[in-house]
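#structure-requests
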Amino acid sequence: MTVDGSIDPGEGSRALRAGGLQRTLRVRRTRGTRGVSSGLLASFLLGWAPILGKFAYRAGVGPMMLASLRTLMAAVLLWVVYLVFWRERIRIPVRAVLSCLLVGAINGIGSLFYYNGLSSLDASRAALLGSMSAPTARTRGFAGARAHL
């Protein structure tokens, strides 16, 4: 800094040379890499859902039981991961818990519909329809999908 309190232009470049910009870019790159990695892993794991669902149906598991088992296994796995790696993040405000319950209820209803559809469709068609958003499904038309069954 100069005597009058303004920043010396050379000071910023010295800070950048000292690694400030490199640390900032490394943090951004790490977050971006984590986001892409998480997205790819989620897509990979969700891609197995219809295949494993069909195996469960062959073993005699019904759609309601399959959705229940999937939810139970996911909850247990998430609790274990959070207890081991992020114990300090378990405490959340009541409002956040209510939001999570709402999202979980909507997702649970969607899972019930998905596994009911999977019980009467082939895995590839159920996965395709399950990945469509409501506006996309409406514009593409379920009637066209039924015509090819």
